[in-house]
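hey so u asked for the seq, here:
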Amino acid sequence: MLRARVLTAAIAIPILIWLIFWASPVWYNAVVLFFTFVSLREMAAMQHVTFAGSTLLTAGGGMVIAVSMLLDPSGAAVSAGLVIALIMTLLGTLVTARDMEQSVIGAGQVLFAAVYGGLLLPHLIWLRALSGGAALVFFLFACVMASDAGGYFGGRAFGKTKLWPVVSPNKTVEGAVSSVFGAMLAGVLFNAVLVHRFGLLEVVLLTVVISVLAQTGDLAESMIKRAYHAKDSGWILPGHGGVLDRTDSMVLPIVFIYYYAG
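ran it, structure tokens below
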């Protein structure tokens, strides 16, 4: 498993760096949107929804993306995307309703998946469009990856106290603390050599928040997978599972750093 992860990372990281710094907005945006739609399909597969529900979920998420992309991620745009997703979900629920209780529960699942999959990840597009945005995207990825690596290796080396065994039995308090230190080291380094945007105390506090949000997203996706009895969200990334498995720790920090830096 570790070998597959390392091999995937060795191939993906150079491509990622090219996309962040040198790819045209068309290519960069297309890649982000491709993985966004894959994440929507993975969520539908985990939920074991019908073809109609899967189509509705993907369409609802797509509408959230489209509205936000057209208007930009202002409060009005996000609200419009959420309202459209809600309307589509309600219409779909009315059309396909049989068991009223299960229909309402299913509508909530579809709406959550459409918003989770369709609204958070596209903030990568808006983050790169900011002044100095490419450096911020790289900074964010570096902090989150360092947080993940710190948690993995710190947990294996020092982990004894379970963090939240009901949700993720392998995660430990020691691993969580190691995650924070990993993010801090990466953040201080890349702020000094690349971003040149934050003061020392500011970047330390930022990376603490980024790591906490990254770990929260990771735990949330573990909860979602357990709820749907899924080991991985998909298979597209060897050694890493699906897109949701790889981006779970990214999506909340992406949104945070976009609104903080914007």
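Residues 34 and 252 are 19 Å apart (CA to CA). The two ends are 38 Å apart (CA to CA).
lmk if thats what u needed
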